[in-house]
Design goal:
The complex is a heterodimer. By secondary structure, chain A is mainly α. Chain A contains 14 helices and two strands. Chain A has a two-stranded antiparallel ribbon. Chain B is 36% helix and 20% strand. The termini of chain B are far apart. The chains are: A mainly alpha, B alpha+beta.
Chain lengths: 297, 171
């Protein structure tokens, strides 16, 4: 990363940082991985689309329009429409991941993700809330310019045109800052909650989210280890803006973050999809593996 | 686009740290999409198990029924629609009534020989042992396996008249 001249103002330095070209491989990785993880999360809903979105399954009735548990009431759709939505969601996600008709696929994927998150609060989790914004970021960026079928077709049409190696920094910066915002916000919420005073991690390992890994760790880790893990998590999350801003702490922070997401995925059953999504964002945003000149399409 | 991105990021952060500002300024459907970072801030005080007893028309008493087949999405964990409905709405009579009608319809259609006229929706609060305690792997137990010391809360019961009426209807 180039250093901005010291005499530049803060806003100008921020603008330079924002616009600094980023390896297009980062964007290609995020475009390929995000839709697949989101579809993985949705898969257990998609195979029961009629139960999820139509009157075949249980539906929460209209609660009067002023209830936090029902951000927007959308009535159930007929079962064939529910199945059509599920099929469209899968096709749009796969096309986006493959870089085929990338922009229309991203637009449809974003729209349907917003719809399913609002249509049924019972099935909406963190991944459901995060996914539309990630998909929107892929939509407004040149995410299909390389490493996909659109890019391959473009290369066949114009074999002499050089393949793009970098992309304007904005979209990658968005993913990078989003991660830091998520970590920092989560860390402060934990500080204000019970992470310094009670056994939060231990307390969440006893219900049907419990995996065999969680149970093994519960039986083998010494009592104080859980507090140690809590303090490590707090230090990582609260300090994330600093850890990821400083060049010499970025790499350790990257691996601590990956470890944390791996632990979440291994210990909390269905939360594996959230762990995977955050891991994908972390790799796409900060892994140094992508900082290699790209010459092949 | 830059401004929209900055507003979104700021909203996610301000919501997570508990300022309440996004709640005041954003419309509810938009706010919903920024409430995503403040995960697991507090310790669980106990494990909550949501259960159903059905009013058996033949025997004229309540007995536990397994409603998992009627909520097939992630039926075995707390992401099941039944768990989520109870978690969010156990104090909301309108939702409990809808749940009552749905469970009775599905149970009577799935097992006409074991018809029910209504439901009793309840929760159990299982204490969490201190760190380091040896405990068996989590498994779903029948209601009858929980000792009386485990606290039970009854959130909804179908009225006697409705139960009698449903039981008198022909299958």
């Amino acid at each position: 990363m180039k250093r901005a001249p010291a005499r530049l103002g803060l806003l100008e330095r921020a603008r330079l940082w924002l616009d600094e070209p980023q390896p297009i491989a980062r964007l290609g990785f995020l475009r390929a991985a995000i839709p697949l993880v989101v579809l993985g999360f949705l898969s257990s809903r998609l195979v029961h689309a009629d139960d999820w979105l139509s009157p075949v399954g249980f539906r929460v009735p209209y609660l009067g329009g002023n209830d936090w548990r029902q951000p927007l009431y959308l009535p159930a759709v007929p079962a064939p429409v529910a199945w059509a939505i599920a099929v469209a969601l899968v096709l749009a996600g796969i096309c986006l991941a493959a870089g085929l008709f990338t922009r229309p696929a991203a637009a449809l994927f974003t729209f349907l993700l917003v719809y399913v998150a609002l249509a049924d609060r019972l099935e909406a989790f963190t991944v459901s809330k995060l996914a539309p914004m990630l998909s929107l970021a892929l939509l407004v960026s040149p995410s299909g310019a390389r490493y996909g079928i659109d890019a391959w077709r473009q290369a066949r049409r114009h074999p002499d045109a050089p393949a793009p190696t970098h992309v304007s920094g904005g979209v990658i910066r968005f993913f990078q800052v989003l991660l830091v915002v998520m970590y920092s916000g989560a860390g402060i919420a934990k500080l204000r909650g019970g992470w310094l005073s009670s056994d939060v991690l231990w307390s969440h390992l006893h219900d049907d989210y419990q995996t065999s890994v969680a149970w093994l760790l519960m039986r083998t880790l010494p009592q104080g280890a859980w507090q140690g893990l809590q303090i490590l998590t707090l230090a990582f999350e609260v300090g994330a803006p600093l850890w990821f801003a400083l060049r010499w702490t970025r790499r350790p922070a990257f691996y601590v973050g990956l470890g944390m997401h791996a632990m979440i995925g291994l210990m909390f059953g269905p939360v594996v999809w959230f762990g995977l999504l955050m891991g994908v964002l972390l790799i796409g945003s900060y892994a140094s593996w992508f900082v290699v000149p790209q010459t092949r399409r | 686009m830059l401004a929209a991105g900055v507003v979104y990021l700021l909203a996610v952060w301000l919501d997570a740290i508990g300022t309440g500002i996004p709640t005041q300024v954003l419309p509810r459907p938009v706010r919903f999409f920024v409430q995503e970072a403040a995960l697991f801030p507090h310790a669980a005080t106990e494990v909550v198990e949501w259960r159903v007893e059905g009013w058996m028309c033949a025997e004229q008493h309540f007995a536990e029924i397994d409603v998992r087949p009627f909520f097939p999405i992630r039926r075995d964990d707390k992401e099941s629609r039944f768990y989520r409905a109870m978690f969010f709405h156990h104090r909301e009579r309108k939702v409990m009534q809808a749940l009552d009608e749905y469970i009775v319809r599905r149970q009577n259609s799935a097992d006409p020989e074991r018809r029910i006229g209504g439901v009793l929706l309840l929760s159990l609060r299982v204490p969490i042992p201190p760190p380091g305690s040896a405990e068996p792997r989590y498994q779903r137990l029948p209601l009858s396996s929980f000792p009386p010391a485990i606290e039970r809360s009854y959130w909804y019961i179908t009225g006697t008249e409705v139960r009698s009426q449903r039981c008198s209807e022909s299958p």
